[in-house]
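lol ok so funny story. i was supposed to be doing the assay writeup but got distracted and ended up predicting the structure for this chain instead. priorities right. anyway since i did it might as well share w the group, maybe its usefull for someone
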Amino acid sequence: MEYHVSPLIKTGDQPTLQPKPVWDDPYAYITGMDPLTRHEFYYIEEKIKQGWITERDIEIVRFLFVHRWITLPQIQRLFFPDAERDETTKKRVRKLLKHGLIRRIQWKSYANPNENRQSYYELGASGADILKFRFGVHLGHRDPRATRPTTMLYRAKYVVTNELYIQLRENFNMTHFEFHPILILKEEQQVPMARFNLKTPKGKCITFYLVVHREDEKWMKTLRYQAQFYKQYLTEVEREAILVFLVRYDEKNDRHEVNHCKNHSDSSN
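and the output, tada:
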């Protein structure tokens, strides 16, 4: 809406914020998932030696192990930022799918089944073997052959967090990022979605925690408890940290997204 934009800001040639698709859709369901490939590791190792699988391909695998699920545009921005055509990224992704380094999940929503949705990409069987046999990584339930049942909402929390990660990485000096840091206060603890550490041009370090709320029925009660915990934590432990809440709720099929930011300076209000 034009009446939400300040007329005093002169954007010039600067890009404005672009609308993003709604990923945390409670009506999402999987329509297709690529079968796991059955390549033996010696076959994949030969592809690496021959240059068919590149160091960038392996970096994508290592990224997916940590970040879990990403979309094709996110792959492009992270690993193919200088590609002149989208087809360059798509061609490489098709090769990664063929060799089993990554795996594609296709999905739709009961809310609008005719709308095309961006596929999610996750770690594939050969990608898991590269991590296991080349780097000695213990995969646990992140091995695609031994995964736990997962909802689309759970996957979406990673996708939306990764979107924020990419935007901050593109625009700031990010010095640290991790999923699910454990915050302890006396006998209580909370596990936010992620921790970001940024450094300003003047060298000041900024830490903020992202809380992507769970999709349970009693989210408001849980949110109030979490807010109280973080308010006390930011007062007693990390006085200069910033807290970001990302929540969503449905009411009569109207979707609302709320971003609530709170730092120590206003925690006493």
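The two ends are 30 Å apart (CA to CA). DSSP finds seven helices and eleven strands in the chain.
back to the writeup now i swear
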